[in-house]
Amino acid sequence: MFQPTQFGRDNQLRARMLITMLGLGLLYGVFMWVAWQLNPMYLTIAVVMVVIQFSLSDKMVLASMRAKVVSSTDAPKLHQMVDDLCMKAGIPKPKVAISDMATPNAFATGRSQKHAAVAVTTGLLNLLNDDELEAVLAHEISHIKTKDVVVMTYASFFLIVAATLSSFLMFSAIFGGMGRSRNNSSAGSIILVALLVTFIVRIVGSMLVATLSRYREFSADRGAAALTLKPMALASALQRLQDSLVITPKQDLRKVESMNAFFILSAVGPGLAELFASHPSTTKRIQRLQQYDQQMAFLR
């Protein structure tokens, strides 16, 4: 019988999560110091946003995807799969949600293992068979097991807070700060520095999150293989999703672009520069899953 201890511990993932959070914390601290120099109100806004993020992060992510929590009566097969996988992984059962969207995808979110949620779209439910669906759910459960979904939730909201405050800074520069700078050159200099820092924070922060996101997808694929002992079921699901996303209307993909880092498969496509890509290529992921399948042959 599969034991939770067989899931394995990914030290590389833990190290990357730590580096990402330290890096974002440093960037965020610098950003807040600059914002404080402009107006203490910005610090108050940031604190309020962080508190809201901490208490409502999972609900906010679900709401952004129009995903509704469903009961075991509403989706018995989905709940049974999640029950079985959580038992194998040794974690509390997350909330189960379904997003009424034609774009096939799945994601996990939450501020802790006890406050987590797994969601799938109706497009995914209509596309995959039972083995493939179980493999995708196992991938999402793996994110919760390793707690990388918690780091991604906070990291993503850090960037949202920075982006929101940067809008205030820009507003100050255009309607307030530049006017003051004619009488006080130091005010204009501070605003220009603030805008530069904002740009650096958003670029470097996005690179840190993307780097963690790419590796965590490999880690969750490995976790799904360990939970189901069916690596090729996940490989098949990834290929189906990739093929389906190619023919999905671009306007549908744009609707979910802000949630891309949480998805099992990128909804943006392969056009992004590698430094900012949130997912490794599907080809590389399938190749690794094929290797896992060979390694696990003796277990089946």
Structural overview:
The protein contains ten helices and four strands. By secondary structure, it is an alpha+beta fold. It has one domain. A four-stranded mixed β-sheet has the order 1-2-4-3, sandwiched between helices. A hairpin with a 2-residue loop joins strand 3 and strand 4.
Major β-sheet profile? 4 strands, mixed
Q: Please tell me the overall pLDDT.
A: 79
Give the class from helix and strand content and strand pairing: alpha+beta
How many helical stretches? 10
Overall structural domain count: 1
Radius of gyration: 21 Å
The rounded distance between the terminal residues' Cα atoms is 12 Å
Strand and helix layout:
Blueprint: H1 11-38, H2 41-64, E1 67-69, H3 76-89, E2 95-99, E3 106-112, E4 115-121, H4 122-127, H5 130-146, H6 148-181, H7 185-228, H8 231-246, H9 250-255, H10 282-295
Parallel strand pairs: 2-4
Antiparallel strand pairs: 1-2, 3-4
